[in-house]
Amino acid sequence: MCECSLLRPDPAQRTRLEEIRDNLEARIIEAKREGWLGEVEGLQVSYSGAKGKLAQIDATLRHTEAATELGIPAFGSIPGRTSAP
Questions:
Q1: Taking the CA of residue 83 as centre, how many other CA atoms within 13 Å lie in the half-sphere pointing to its CB?
Q2: For the chain, how far is it from start to end, CA to CA, in angstroms?
Q3: Backbone torsion region of residue 65, taken as left when φ is above 0, otherwise alpha when ψ lies between -120 and 50, otherwise beta
């Protein structure tokens, strides 16, 4: 998974990102239990990245749902314009 903050995640990949986040969480728990402190740190960075991408998807979906469709007026409905016969 790319950690690049400039790339926008595809909302269609939300389920996949949730699986990655859940897997990372389980691996962090295992690494803590086993005392693999270096591994814990690296996994937490990836976990934070996955959570951030999910937050980006959620924000994009909220923005899309809040958008208002203004439509495009037909040429003939613009005042002072008439369409050719």
A1: 7
A2: 57
A3: alpha
**Token pair 């693999």 in the structure block, residue:** 36
CB atoms within 10 A of CB 63: 9
Tell me: the pLDDT tens digits for 31-74? 999 999 999 999 999 999 999 999 999 988 887 766 666 777 66
**Would you list the domain boundaries of the chain?**
11-60
Closest by CA to 57, choosing from 19, 12, 20, 25, is: 12
Contact 80, 74 (CB under 8 A): no
Rounded to two decimals, the pTM is: 0.66
Phi, psi for residue 83 in degrees, rounded to 5: -90, 150
Write down the residue that tokens 């699986």 correspond to: 19
Q: What is the CA radius of gyration of the chain?
A: 23
